Amino acid sequence: MADTNRKTSHTCKISLQGAALLNDPQWNKGSAFTEEERQIFKLRGRLPCKVNTLEEQIKRAYDQLQQHDTPLKKNSFLESLRVQNWILYYALVQKYLKELMPIVYTPTEAEAISNYSHLYRRSEGLYLSFPNAETMEEDFLDQVKGRDIDLIVVSDAEAILGIGDQGVGGVAISIAKSVIYTLVGGIDPARTLPVALDVGTNNKELLDDDIYVGWRHNRVRGKDYDEFVDKFVQLVKKHVPNGLLHFEDFGVTNAQRLLNRYQEDYAVFNDDMQGTGAVTLAALMSAVGITKTKLSDQTIVIYGAGSAGLGVARQIRDAMVILDGMDKEEATRRFHLVDKDGLVTKSLVDKAQHAGWAEFQRNDDEAQEGTSLCDVVKRSKCTILIGTSTHAGGFTEEVVKEMTRNNAHPIILPLSNPTKLVEAHPQDIIKWSDGKALIATGSPFDACDLPNGQKAIIAECNNALIYGGIGHGAILARAKKVSDGMLIAAVQRLAQLSPALKSHQGETGKEGNVQDAEGNLPPLLPDFETAPDTNFEVSIAVAQCAIDEGLARIDFDPSQLREKADIARWQPVYPRYTYDANGYGES
Hints:
The protein is α/β, with parallel strands linked by helices. The protein has 25 helices and 16 strands.
């Protein structure tokens, strides 16, 4: 097996020639094949005579991209490019990361997924369908045998990107997530495997769609579902013993349950439950650093008690316990969860039969004073308000003003995405709080006007600022599991990189003042343009924690960690090729 971790000085031995090489996206260079390579690999008559550099190819591809007038068309163009030439695709998107991230991921990817069957051109990833459960191991080995797999991203597509149940289209979110791991986490795309668990769908539009390419059946539940998922996980543990298994967009009734079941005996990560919680916690740690308080001083209202909301609550609660030494029961009492039916109380938990809510349920007598979001904010005198509800406009002027009455600097995080579903626009929050609120959002927003005439740079509380680093760190350490300590290490490192906190601490300005060189309010989190470097720092913190906790299975001296992390960081550059009949492409 060839070493696919490409560096500019690296040489790869390739057995593919002619059309086979041009049709392999992992190794295709297109017009960038050198004269020597064209001769050796029988490409001279298959390519125009001009030899392009990668930079020239990026310019041409970017110009072509601009000819497409809608985000979905741009998404389709980039997907076409990715299945033709990995290096060019990743180099292009990485160069224009902040501009193109909304195209290759949320919010545009949600539209592409909802149209998956109608846009379908070619298969990619691993499809494990419930009717074919008997051949699951054979199908699995067809994809992984002879490969070195570091990362498996799997989805059953019950809760995709705010658009719900998308059936077999979930493979597209697994692919997109794998792409982001490469873009910001430096994980070699050849060592990733996107997986769709097709257990049916309850989406009537898909079931009634003659063009739907998945299993046309209602979702499997209960014992049959658990056995199907368990069969898959056992295959991962058997055939990819040192990898990371990433669960993506599982429904609220399964997400935490599956994480609890497998997280102690394999490196398992759920971005919805843990990634959202981790990046949110990093923003909060930055904010409480500015207000000179502690997490354990906070009272928190979370609007939206689905997988993401519960994950955020647990992550913050666990940090209160680990970092501040708070009693777990007392920490849990600091949270008030509000769902579409109001405050989560014991009666609501019993009525909804939602076991995941039970640990955060409030007493029924609290409901007598009102259960709406505004009622809860007023009664709790909360210091932090977090939105994961997808209820556009859910944070009203009355809610924000109520928080401002009780706090010098209310911490308000409307995290729902896409943008059209955000609980409040940050400019409105600034207006209603007289510029006092500390804000981070789940989608990108332009800088907002402050009452003093300056600007507030709004932090994008994007999971991709942290999960790539968590994944890369766990893989680098060959961690036995992803521990709470590893997640806290990731959060602490990300918070340390906060421009707002650095400014407040005097690293980038006068100590005690929160403003950048232009006098603007800097963001609570690093800019997304820095995501690759940010995740690299996170990965080192995570790997070091795994080593310290005895969870690592490394074959190098821990003092070499940063050097090894840099070497393992995959880069989209063309290596040199030499022909070898036993090299890559051997049948």
